[in-house]
Amino acid sequence: MKELIIIKMKKIVINGGRPLKGEVTISGAKNSVVALIPATILADDIVTLDGVPDISDVASLIEIMTIMGAKIERKEDSLIIDPRGVKNMPMPFGKINSLRASYYFYGSLLGRYGQATVGLPGGCDLGPRPIDLHLKAFEAMGAAMTMDGSSMKLATDGKPLQGANIYMDTVSVGATINTILAAVKAEGRTVIENAAREPEIIDVVTLLNNMGAHIRGAGTDIIIIDGVPHLHGTRHQVIPDRIEAGTYIALAAAIGEGIQINNVLYEHLESYIAKLEEMGVRMTISEDSIFVEKQTDLKAIQIKTSPYPGFATDLQQPLTTLMTQAYGESKVVETIYIERFKHCGELQRMGANIEVSTGSASIKGPSSLFGTKVVATDLRCGAAMLVAGLLAEGITEIHDVYHIDRGYAEIDQKLKNLGAVIWRETIERLQRYNNIKEK
Ligand code: EPU
């Protein structure tokens, strides 16, 4: 039977329209660390990760790994992970379904034990997010998939995983990393063609090679993995989060009066920075920081998302908010997730002039945004709402902020340090609840 229960949630409140200035330091990359943590399962000794962001996806992974038997200690921004006690137990429940990256447990458990039983991954609702390419790769290496209740079971018929030649029909970050995790201790050579080239893939491969793996080609579209029997412990520095950096650049261009963004690797943001320069955003780029100056006369641009080194889909949402301030008609064409436009509806309620069609959005600007109640429908929509709320006149309330907390470390404090007037309030919401005692 379904019952109604009251749940307590947080909302972010922003008193916007105030110029921001100062410095902000970017945290470690979410989309790296969510793969690095499951990758440590493959090691026979302790792995220390430095520069781990304080985000809820990391907390969820720590919870899952601890249930599995890992010992994990957090010391400031380092995670000391002892994976030696990890058991090959079914992981059907709890936090598994709350994040996308739980699919990396398929690859890492398969790589360590030749089998894995894990619940289905969750994550942001960006339309269909299949994992067929992951499964095809596991199958090519000798693991068959069956459903076990609400979990997926992957297992070989008792033989070790075998190296295989795998061609990815679509460029996929998750499928590339998952194939590497499964192949790293497999017998023989695995070749991945049409592999994704994102910096996060290089980061994961750097960790694995420092653990003793033999992987070549990360950062190109052909990755070659020669299986090794054992991987040892190591220490690894997580790369800076290019999407967090890109979000602060959009924010600084929208409302900054001079903002210095530290711990940024410009090379990871080249396509984004090129498009911002086309818009007229003035930036001074140094070795590991970017200074963004105040802007008044932004020009409309067109962007089309594509796999790295193309324009990142994760950055089109915060950039859409900046586009509402540009003169003329900007256009976003989304080729990775054609339904990733929920932020546009929220921006429209704040006064933006946006028309959404299948796979694209046209933004006419400039528009004066005003504060109102909006929803962070997914992580990067939340980022777009933060930029909009800081830009808008008056009070903006952002609901469902748990999406933002999945990927933006210490967001309130970082924005307060720049002069933002931002705080959180607790709200109560009625929600239907499945009484699990009922049959
Ligand atoms: N795809 C398939 N089959 C698969 C896998 C992917 O058809 O088996 C398709 C997807 O539907 C999509 C495209 O391939 O059209 C690329 O998806 P990809 O597999 O690269 O996405 P992902 O690995 O699930 C990661 C990031 C996303 C980011 C995408 C694209 C993580 C945990 N997530 O997702 O990050 O948008 O790559 O760059 O790394 C975010 O940070 O907000 C976020 C959603």
Describe the 3D structure:
The protein has about 450 residues and is α+β, with helices and mostly antiparallel strands. Helix content is about 30%, strand content about 30%. It contains 13 helices and 23 strands. The protein has helices at about 30-40, 55-70, 105-115, 130-140, 175-185, 200-210, 240-255, 270-280, 315-325, 340-350, 380-390, 400-405, 410-415, and strands at about 1-15, 20-25, 45-50, 70-75, 80, 115-120, 145-150, 150-155, 165, 190-195, 215, 220-225, 235, 255-260, 285, 290, 300-305, 330-335, 355, 360-365, 375, 395-400, 420-435. The strands form 6 sheets. It has a 4-stranded mixed sheet. A 4-stranded mixed sheet has the order 2-14-16-15. Strand 7 and strand 8 (about 150-155) form a beta hairpin. Helix 1 (about 30-40) runs parallel beside helix 3 (about 105-115) and helix 3 packs parallel to helix 5. The chain is globular, with a radius of gyration of 22 Å. The N and C termini lie close together (about 10 Å). The mean pLDDT is about 95. Uridine-diphosphate-2(N-acetylglucosaminyl) butyric acid binds next to helix 1, helix 4, helix 5, helix 9 and helix 11.
